[in-house]
Amino acid sequence: MSTVTFRKMHGLGNNFVVLDARSAPLPLSRAQAAAIADRHTGVGCDQLIVMEPPEDRLADVFMRIRNTDGSEAEACGNATRCVASLVMAENGNGHAVVQTVAGLLDAEAHDGQVTVDMGPANLDWRDIPVSDAIDTLHLGIEQGLLVDPVGVNIGNPHAVFMVEDAEAIPLQQLGPQIEKHAMFPEFTNVEAVQVITRDKVRMRVWERGVGITRACGSGACAALVATARRGLTERKATVVLDGGPLVIEWLPDGHVTMTGPVATSFTGTLDDALLAQA
After folding, report:
1. Could you read off the pLDDT tens digit of each residue along the chain, which spans 278 residues?
2. In terms of domains, do 102 and 132 share one?
3. In which domain, by residue range, is 56 found?
4. pTM score
5. Which of 18, 99, 222, 266 could serve as 62's disulfide partner, Cβ 3.0–4.6 Å?
6. Same domain, 135 and 106
7. Claim to verify: residue 123 and residue 90 sit in the same structural domain
């Protein structure tokens, strides 16, 4: 009988299965991770999150991120807020440091919201990365209604497209084509962003290794950075996703902060069949 418990959490509908492996190792194969994430035969989630002991003494927890296909991701802003909220509840204070593959992320709780410093926005072509030395303000690729994106890395790669109507973009069709475009050697997340005012934008997202999700924290950060670089918004704005709004700010030091809610949907125990996947 399995004794592996989980929490189902979400940030604006961007949902996660969170496992706690801080007291005992929980090595998961790609097949096991994908089985747990499967919405038809597993628990179902956008990403599987494993809390592990931190490798850095400054961190409270290490957060490992697995996509629905079992592959590993570097960053996930909404998951960071969820994990940080758990750590802060345990510690009894309003601050936590979450270590990820992309680095250390500071989080604070206030007024029922969690703010995460997602680190610096990386804008050099080598940091996205893209295949050629190019100005990342205009990557120049085109796929249907998606034309000339801005390249941004917020712990993971993003191609941010400015569009007149985000709702009109056939993201289910175009997202996977852009994700695996030859320009992106590590593939990319894809954002369709409509500027509403200088402090409000609408964003829809295709997440690398996942597909369309209701919200993407790092994508919202990338969207704000991209629109600010193009002179279309201020450096602080509300990004409205399918699941609701996040407040994003691109600070003078180059770091990007994200503020929004977190929630727990339910808890449970994994079935042995999920952990028995080859």
Report:
1. 568 999 999 999 999 999 999 999 999 999 999 999 999 999 999 999 999 999 999 999 999 999 999 999 888 999 999 999 999 999 999 999 999 998 999 999 998 899 999 999 999 999 999 999 999 999 999 999 999 999 999 999 999 999 999 999 999 999 999 999 999 999 999 999 999 999 999 999 999 999 999 999 999 999 999 999 999 999 999 999 999 999 999 999 999 999 999 999 999 999 888 888 65
2. no
3. 5-112+262-275
4. 0.91
5. 99
6. no
7. no
- Asked if 124 and 146 sit in the same domain, the reply is yes
Structure tokens at 195: 């500027």
Write out the two tokens for 39.
């919405």
Give 3-state DSSP helix, strand, coil % of the chain, rounded to 5.
20, 40, 40
Angle 34-39-43 (CA atoms, 0-180°, nearest 5)? 75
Residues 127 and 239 in one domain: yes
- Based on the fold, state whether residues 235 and 270 are members of the same structural domain: no
Active site residues: 76, 216
Q: How far apart are CA 223 and CA 217, in angstroms?
A: 10
- Alpha-carbon separation of residue 17 from 49, 90, 154, 270 (angstroms): 6, 19, 22, 10
231 and 126, same domain (yes or no)? yes
| Residue from 14, 4, 45, 58 nearest 213 by CA | 14
Number of domains making up the chain:
2
3 state DSSP class of 17 = strand
Helices 217-229 & 77-91, crossing angle to 10 degrees?
Answer: 120
Residue located via tokens 């592990």: 52
